[in-house]
Amino acid sequence: MTDTLSRALVHTLLQHAEDLPWRMNDIGLMGLRLDDRRECRLHVWDPGSSVGEPPVHDHPYGFTSTVIAGELTNTRFEEDPSGDEYVRFRYRPGAEEGRRSDRVRLSSTPTTLIEGDVYGQLAHELHTSAQRPGTVTAIRCDWVETSELTVCLRDGASWRSGQGRDATRQEIRRISAMALEWF
User: Fold this and answer.
1) How many CA atoms lie within 13 A of 97 on its CB side?
2) Domain containing 73: what range?
3) Domain count of the chain?
4) pTM exceeds cut of 0.85
């Protein structure tokens, strides 16, 4: 994907961002689908738009992500009896309202990535990420059949849906301007 999605092409997309159908997620992520199969997306990150602390979570797909511009820290989590305690929610894809919860202890391993770095994540691996404002990543998803998704929150954090919505013109202008500062 990144062979054809060059830094120059991403720069052009961001210069014309208002003409494109961006989606916004409450974790401070503005995303653009790049194909009809939902396999390739461009992500522009605005941690200031995150509603609360980004949750520890898994995905219904494995993915490979390339940092086009900026910097992020991807943190992987695994169960560990001496780790920090989280409230773990599990639910069927598309059925968040039927979620059930328990408690789990997790330890973490962070990795910081900069422009040109590539990392992969398996669907079932728990992770979270923190980005510098305007960081741009390109992601290729490998969808898998999964019967359950997981979200882990610290005590006191509120559940919020992982579903996206259309980005507003104001969000598109503001977030793409932050991204263009990396170019």
Assistant:
1) 0
2) 7-180
3) 1
4) yes
Mean pLDDT confidence for 113-119: 97
Residue 104 counted as domain residue: yes
Does residue 125 contact residue 76 with C-beta atoms inside 8 Å? yes
* CATH code at position 156: 2.60.120
User: Rounded to whole angstroms, what are the CA distances from 24 to 45, 83, 123, 172?
Assistant: 10, 32, 21, 9
DSSP 22-89: -EEETTTEEEEE-STTS-EEEEEE-GGG-SSSPPEE--SEEEEEEEEESEEEEEEEEEEEEEEEEEEE
Whether 107 has a pLDDT exceeding 80, the answer reads: yes
The answer to whether residue 2 is domain-embedded is: no
Q: Does residue 78 lie within any of the structural domains?
A: yes
- Specify if 42 maps to a domain: yes
Percent above pLDDT 90 for the chain: 85
Res. 2: pLDDT tops 70: no
